[in-house]
Amino acid sequence: MLIAQITDSHLLLGDGKLAGRFDTKASFDRLMANLAKQLVQPDIVLFSGDLGEDATLEEYQYVGAALSKLGLTVLAVPGNHDARAPMREALADFVGNTDSGHLCLCDSRFPITIIGLDTLVEGAPHGELCQARLNWLEDALARQRQNDVLIFMHHPPLTTGLRDMDSMGLLEGRERLARLVEAHGKVRGILCGHMHRAIIGSCGGAPVFVSPSSSHQITFDLRDNQPYSFSDEPAQFAMHLIEPGTPMLSHVVPVLYQRP
Ligand SMILES: [Fe+2]
Q1: What residues does the ion ligand 1 have nearby, CB within 5 Å?
Q2: Can you give the CATH number for the domain in which 237 is found?
Q3: Where in the sequence is the domain holding 63, given as residue range(s)?
Q4: What would the pLDDT profile of 134-146 be if each residue is shown by its tens digit?
Q5: Is this structure's pTM higher than 0.70?
């Protein structure tokens, strides 16, 4: 199974540039063109949050129309820049909806069950997994006891050393998430975004892969007391190869590469 992971597009419509320098709409359009030209098409596209910069309905309609054109199955979870109501309205086919109103999803159409976790705290940059979402996850994992599972979520359950970003990381629910992953025993990977860098770690015995942004990156800087800043590294996305019972293999693919 081949899984394309895209993340942190921060789509901004109109003439404005993000932070005065990043044309995130041009990056998103290039990403879509790159995916359409892949020599082996992925079985599914997972969008791990921060689809839009301002969380407007128009941003999600633009994302939805472009992704639908690929003709691939797409699943998405919100990031801290997103908002649930317009995502639900414009991207109904891509997102889940739990009884507690969170956009968590469980899709068992593939050889590996895909679980998407909504870590959004609306209006805040950090993420959390509250008891309602963790209870939902516990039930979902119990129903998928026999199956391999891949989880995707925006905020990584890691402390990365990028301190300013860590201060707005997954601040609640990490320990129980790790216990649930460990107890299930067949979670093959946890795919995340938010950090705008490629980072690898682990949680509950499962590998955690943080994909770089499909638009713009954050500077690698491990110093204390430094606000995060943006770098000029290229837009990227990830391709994950995974079959039941095998470890996940992850490739990072720059978007700017133009096939002749
Ligand atoms: Fe982001």
Answers
A1: 8, 50
A2: 3.60.21.10
A3: 2-254
A4: 999 999 999 999 9
A5: yes
